[in-house]
User: Fold these one by one.
Assistant:
Number 1:
Amino acid sequence: MVPMTIGRRLTMWYGSIWTLSLVLLSVAVYATFARNQRAEIDRALDEELAEIAIEVVNAADTATRDAQLRKYFGQHPYYAVQVARPDGEILFASESLRQSSLPVPDFREGAAEQSVENVAFDDGREFRAASRLVQTFDGPVVIQAGDSLEPYYAALSRLMSVLLWLLPASVAAALAAGYWLSRRALAPVDQMTAAAIRISANRLAERVDVACPDDELGRLATAFNGMLDRLQRSFQEMQQFSADAAHELRTPLAVLRSEADVALQTARSPEEYQSILENQLDEIQRMTRLVDQLLFLCREDAGVTAPGAPIAVGPFIAELVEDLQPLAHDRNLSLRCEPLPACRVLIDSDRLRRLFCNLLDNAIKYTPPGGRVTVSGACRVDEVEIAVSDTGIGVSAEQAPHLFQRFYRAASSRGSTYGSGLGVAICDAVAKRHGGRITIAGNPDAGTNVVVTLPTAAPPSASAM
């Protein structure tokens, strides 16, 4: 079976619509032609009756009437003429009737005094007959004129033959033209199909040519190219992410292997083995944290989100700040929480804790002793803003946009603290997953200000904590 492609379907639809249109047009033409021809015959018969009526009505006696009828209508070349009494008695009949007679209508009192009908004779002839009741010197008579329908049927037959010949020829031409037009209209689709077949993970830079960007196929090609741009960026990010993850994991693995090799070369005391195991445990914990962060990001990218519940963000963050006070005290920092709004956000509590723990941990980590970290907030119409500000090393305007990249660490932070460069990326993923956003503003001389914006789950409360 030949596959029903879009081009063939368009051709079949075009051909079907064209065929139906031609059939309806042919029926309309045929019916209109037949009606007009019949109307023309009736008009001519009416004129003929008027001429017959003049001779019959003006005759003063029977002999004069008969003589006039034989003279003008006895051998009429076009029409059959008959004059009869209302009771059916034939007074005159032209030679074209050939021993046949036209039926005499029954013009009763109150009925119409003229009628038109088709009459079929026994010899196969068919006439269109018009009759009229007129008053004469010897009472009412019915005058009749008939016209043969043979030319009428012959004309209809010729028209039918022409229509029956033109219909299939027109349909065949329409199918051929429709197929040609569909192939030409769908040529860009074939080009996009060929380009899609050629494109692979190693050839994502190839794009589809857009000849007419404003038409439907042009917009489709533009959207297809846009999708390829996003795929290319995603592949590049995945490749960079894989390379960065491999690099981050390679360092602790190399340390573990090196320490194990050194420990196995010579016999050591229990204290030395304990020291080596403690170092290896630190590296294992580092790898565990890194793997946990990578797994969390993968789940966020895949949309695996635990069902959230409305959480009062103010008390939640205040409690979190209280839990981190010992860490700030160890680094000789001031960690302060200003009064926060009591509005609620719809989010999983573990993700909300991870979001602000990462931000507060970064603020504490990159703020030198004697500095301060401040948490503040405000409630808008349908969202809440929580700001984490510090007086730490800060970031430059050029570095700020890159902080959301995975494994990115600002140059000012490298070597000063320990970290994988995934904390801000995790915060950004959590905020976006719940319809929020994070903005970072920093100055190398004045610290960093991070603002987290989340949609509220209920109208904000007027009270503050």
Number 2:
Amino acid sequence: MGASVSVVMITFNGDLFFQQQLNSILCQKYLKEVHIYDDNSSSDFKRILREAANAHGIITLHENKGNLGVIRNIKKGLQENYSADYIALADQDDVWLEDKLELCLKEMLELEKGDNDIPTLIYHDMKIIDENDQLLQGTFWQNRRQDIYEHSFQTNLIVNLVTGSASLMNKELTKYAKDIPENLEIYHDAWLGMVAYTMGRVKSIKKPLSAHRSHEKSLTFNQKRSNSLLKRVRNNVMQLSGKEEPLKHQFQFIECFLETYESRLETTYRLNLQEFLSLKGKGYLTQKKHIWEAQNKSLFS
């Protein structure tokens, strides 16, 4: 393969696990460069980052003067590296398995088949480790029950299937980063994943190609199932009473997505998104029935 991958890593006070993650990235085949976007970390961590950039010629450090937050920092990293043929996003505290980029790039090139003008996304499952590198039970997909359904547009419409740090995207997909909303309770990966599922090509890899680290200071989210029983009971009560919708944030996301791209979507996808939005305000049981039907359609298709 003559292709290569640029890595965009976002960091913020990642002293504990940064070096281990960086080492796992630097030993990857087909790695071209690493761009680190630091969100105004402490002076001690900035020193670690500068030392790493000075020690490795393929590392470029970008230091934010103020704190942008996760989404704005990732958008900046993607937009400033739009000329890269392929980009893999990296968290500061995960660990990549040695064949991650090789396998993702192989799948990418097979999916593109020489046509790289269509937004294309490859994403994979992850192992789960704790702060002591101990392997925890189940993979990321297994813990979220994403391993039992077909990964498809219909399933992704109900719940985001894509994790940014477990993905590889081509140049065409990164062009859509500028549209990622910053005022919704969704992450960048949900937006780019929906772009790929509706206007491009997607391939999911069931094999875990990295280890997601579960710990209290994770930048994006904590995989320790922080939703306590009490919180889940409260949510169910609120939804049953009609005071909250189980798909509230997904409705907001799809409304924004449809408003942004409606004129560019094929009729089938546009109608499916509109049909999903018609469930808004229909009540807890109706929405839950739709979720169940979509999941089972995916499961038995």
Number 3:
Amino acid sequence: DKSLPLFCLPIGVKDIFRVDGFPTRCGSRLPEEIFRGTEASCVSRLKKAGAIVIGKTVTAEFAGPEPGPTRNPHNQQHTPGGSSSGSAAGVSAGYFPVALGTQTLGSISRPAAYCGVFGIKPSFGRISTDGVFVFSESADHVGIFFSDLSLADLVLATIVDNWNSDQEEAEESLSLGIPSGPYLEQATTNELKRFERVVQTLKAAGHRVKEIPCFDKIKEINNCQLKMATKEFTNLHSQWSSQYGSLYRPRTARYFTRGGEITDRELEGYKAQRHIVREQLQLTMAKHSLDAWICPSATDQAPKGLQSTGDPVMNIPWTCSGLPTISVPYQDT
């Protein structure tokens, strides 16, 4: 039925999206009534296309660093990543084939990698964030987790305006760039060994892969993105934090102190950095005729314990640029 392309497709929705008939809590202890309002338009569009929301998924508090109770389905002693913990784990465990999440630093790509599912983050702003309690309005992307990539085109065509669904035949040989230098060196030795095996597999399949120096000022990029998000989170929560400050968990509450030390002028500088990073990436891709970049989605496998959702540094420059990304699972043999 073309009018219902997603007929009876079960989906999970990260609990920072408003969904009619479900309470929104944002993984927090703040009163439920303050989160009420109009349903997120991306959710409404999925439902109108026939999808069925079967549940809200666990999020780290306000999509920040305070983990929820979700465990990694592959090994329950390890984190599923975050902040879209429940969405990634739910798809991985087979509760639903599709789930919505968001990414401020690495909250689509990293949990997708840790849980062994596909995680797609379209370009910044391509999926509306209305009805979503974002962490940072200049950083947050809405993204989607999939168990099967064949569903991606149908779902994205539903919620992304002017989505190009033309199925062109993939080129037999792609030109792929590895962003070598200090960025790549943030990954562990074990992860880089795994990544090298992936690179050799791609080369054996006929793809052209070359190392290209990139992100030489990665610490500055990481710092800018984190400070921008911190300031915007502080601004967005200014009213609630003064009224419900004691209800925020410790790691979330720390953002208010840090954000209060960042001036509005500094914030504008951090926001401008996004455009610089994007332009540099696009110029480098054009210079070397690249179809895409390839890199690890995380610094290593999912860390043991639930005290942290893992390190997002491999994701930050891609989020900062606002360019689209896909995290692809692979079986390391």
